[in-house]
Amino acid sequence: MHNPTSTLPATAARQSFSKKLLKWGGIVFLTLVLLAGLLVSAFYWTALRTEQPVGFQAVRAVDANGKPFGLGIWYPTTAATSASWTGSFLMQVATNGPIAGTSLPLVVISHGTGGGIPSHADLAMALAAAGYVVAAPMHSDNYLDTSSVGTPAYFTGRSQQLRSTIDFMLSQWPGHAQVDANRVGAYGFSIGAFTVLTAAGAKPDLRGLAKYCTDHSEFACDMLRQSNSFLLGTDLPAGFDHFAQDQRIKAIVVAAPGLGFTFSGKDALANVNAPLQLWQGDKDINVPDATNAKVIRDALADRVEFHSVPNAAHLSFLVPCGVLKMLPVCTDPAGFDRQQFHDTMNPLVVAFFTKQLAQP
């Protein structure tokens, strides 16, 4: 005959196990909540901030061919700010806040290959806090899609897109009446530096790229080979090396300029009349100084304000990473403090634009 009491020990054991499971489950849950809270707090306390309030808008513009592209815009405001997520870090900004001021100077920012609108967000915020309107286009070779690398869109298309950005900011942006069309500057990093220089009047020798890349080992050449660029062939399309100068650009800052070797021709930089501030990391193996930044320095001589950055690599010019320092784009040489460097560089860039774009 079955004895009901014989099941009591098993039942008690199951109940005890369930209690322990609930207890440990609760501990694990609370631990995860605590860790999530700490992570959120870390993101918040490392958010990009400025002493003066900065507004931010994400909008869409169109290029000369009617193709839309994203545009990030920072500007001075009087509105209260809050933390805004950019995808990998937070900015303390007033999203879509009102624009403060009149006759504001404009700076456009051209990111590097695989970058995007937030690539130089800390510099953009520093400029906006100092009274600038800053516009950063999402070029067609961005972190979401690099398929345009090596195509005409990677060269003349970028330059045209920068011009379209200025067009939009001076005529279509809702706050365009508060922007001074006579005070326009441009900042470019890596291929973005090439973009800014060509928009400012530089004429690169793209026809000689195939031979150069045969004779030299350069990161840019590796990228062109990987993308099967038309430039490494013999069938070159008409107009592929036609760059229209934008006379509205009155001052330029370039960092770690990519494809600098294409400006080695005698008259390649002859039409660049805007004053130029040039930055180069002395540990940059992607864009070595000797074949890139030095070419520009030698051609423009005393017209260049040059800054060599000790122990800086190519990616050291990108926005400081906050808590996500494990990401590949956050890698710097041992002992290099990216945040400390940007705390030094950004005020010098602001001061340069302020001097060169001063109202008459």
Fourth-tier CATH superfamily name of the largest domain: Alpha/Beta hydrolase fold, catalytic domain
- CATH class category label of the largest domain: Alpha Beta
What number of structural domains do the residues give?
2
**Element order, helices and strands?**
HEEEEEHEHEHHHEEHEH
Give the number of DSSP strands. Answer: 10
The number of helical segments is 8
Shape: globular
List the strand order in the largest sheet: 3-4-1-2-6-5-7-8-9-10
Which range does the strand content fall in? 15-25%
Question: What fraction, in percent, of the residue positions are helical?
Answer: 25-40%
Account of the 3D structure:
By secondary structure, the protein is of the alpha/beta class. The protein folds into 2 domains: 10-45; 48-356, Rossmann fold, CATH 3.40.50. It is 32% helix and 19% strand. It has a 10-stranded mixed sheet with strand order 3-4-1-2-6-5-7-8-9-10, with helices on both faces. Helix 2 crosses helix 8 (338-356) and helix 3 (156-171) packs across helix 4 (191-199). The longest helix has 38 residues, at 8-45. It starts with 7 loop residues before the first helix and ends with a helix. Mean pLDDT is 88; it is low at 30-45. It comes from Rheinheimera tilapiae.
